[in-house]
Structure of Pyridoxamine 5'-phosphate oxidase N-terminal domain-containing protein:
Amino acid sequence: MKEPITKIDPRFSDPQAVATPWEETQRALETAQLFWISTMRSDGRPHVTPLVAVWLDGAIHFSTGPEEQKAINLRQNPHVVLTTGCNDWKEGLDVMVEGDAVPCTDNAMLKRLAEAWATKWDGSWKFEVRDGAFYHPKGGKVLVFAVKLAKILAFSKGSFSHTRHQF
């Protein structure tokens, strides 16, 4: 992954604020326990739902059942936003990842991702890998997507800053 171009947006930042370094934003993506994904329904209405995701090899990855609303939406429109952060106004970092969801079907990569899912959540998320997909132990195919990054926004609170990481 190439390093992004990082710039602070002074219009939405405190005068003394500095840009959030890419390393800090990436760490937030690596350690986040929960994300919210936004997709678009065929009639143009937004769909937002929580999910777990894994940062691996310079991309954020998420999964969904083939008949879940987000999977249906992605068949027509690959544009997504994944959001994570904290609900505290005085401190923390909120991060928005914008890009296109691309199916991940390579079994070798899926095995690495399955291991990452199991490790990150202490074994709570376990998947088998076969035929270019995850399979849940209780049955059922699970699609996996990588987000092809367009930009990542980082909003620092306390000393408010609005940082754009452009890819």
Summary: The chain has three helices and eleven strands. Residues 5-103+134-166 form a domain with the Pnp Oxidase; Chain A fold (CATH 2.30.110.10). Residues 107-120 form the longest helix (14 residues).
